[in-house]
Amino acid sequence: MSVDDTGSGADGDGRVDPEPAPDAADSGEDPLALRLEGLILGAERRYTPFQAARSAGVSMELASRFWRAMGFADIGQARALTEADVLALRRLAGLVEAGLLSEAMAVQVARSTGQTTARLAEWQIDSFLEGLTEPPEPGMTRTEVTYPIVELLLPELQEFLVYVWRRQLAASAGRVVQAADDEEMVDRRLAVGFADLVGFTRLTRRMEEEELGELVEAFETTAADLVAARGGRLIKTLGDEVLYAADDAGTAAEIALLLVETMANDETMPELRVGIAFGTVTTRMGDVFGSTVNLASRLTSIAPRDAVLVDSALAEELIRTQDAPASEAVAAEEAAAAEKASEEPPSYRFALQPMWQRPVRGLGVVEPWLLTRRGDENDRS
Q1: Cα–Cα nearest to 102, from 142, 73, 56, 62
Q2: What is the SS3 assignment for 278?
Q3: Residue 335: CB atoms within 10 Å
Q4: What are 110-161's pLDDT values in tens digits?
């Protein structure tokens, strides 16, 4: 396909001279929707995908890979792209040309950014703007109200997004710098926890959609706040389930117990089960993978209601860091020895009770431990 096939010419250096964008009547699209798009993008439609790729100096094949990775649908050769789209392609390609990123890594950057911001944009439109754009007067359309609202909010939301991203980037970079070696930057030892609402499927059949949505939002919000406040990282939410990670076993254990206690004190919430495993985890695009993650998921599925099960590796780590005694017998011996020496006995946060070993498909025989707070009536083995 030549540049002339697009109906546009190219100057001596190969840059495309796009035609003016069609008006709303020609395109058949809602004129207010086009105005809203122009406001948000800050530019008018000028390029077809082919023209944008040529203007950015990248192949159509690479441009298509970038756009699909960002989550945008194929649009054929419709003239729907802007100068900002060309600049984005040029920047990604420039990182590859400079050797700062491989082509595969550049595609991953596009995909991770697209997936994250797509969810953010959907949430803001569905939850945030929807509540602000109820027509104040009869006869006004939602789009007519949305335009001035977006015009006012856009610069503030953009600045806030950049601020949060920089904060998160600084925190993540700090964790990487503290890694013991290069391999640990990718394959790290983490505590991974799953928290799962019990009987959620039955709830979906009994509750109205709006009520169910409010329950899920309350669960996700509470879990996210607790995980962040205690120094963990929320990896993802799956409606009735949350996945989180922590750098140390004690933090993961504290988060798990807080989740169970908080949900148990809320009469509107179902019971909760939590499973935690400790070990090597592969991190990719903000997600975590590996047998440690699979084990945490399996532990959650067999955990008692309103209880926390952990694997033997996490139990050993809690004992090593003196967050939990090896057994109640050991704790009693330590207390007696401390009393005899007129010293304070060791102070433990958690108690561990070994459960029956059981085979787990794909993971072999697993030895789960019941995690409770030290001093709870059900701590005693």
Answers
A1: 62
A2: strand
A3: 14
A4: 988 888 888 888 878 776 666 666 666 677 766 667 788 888 888 998 999 9
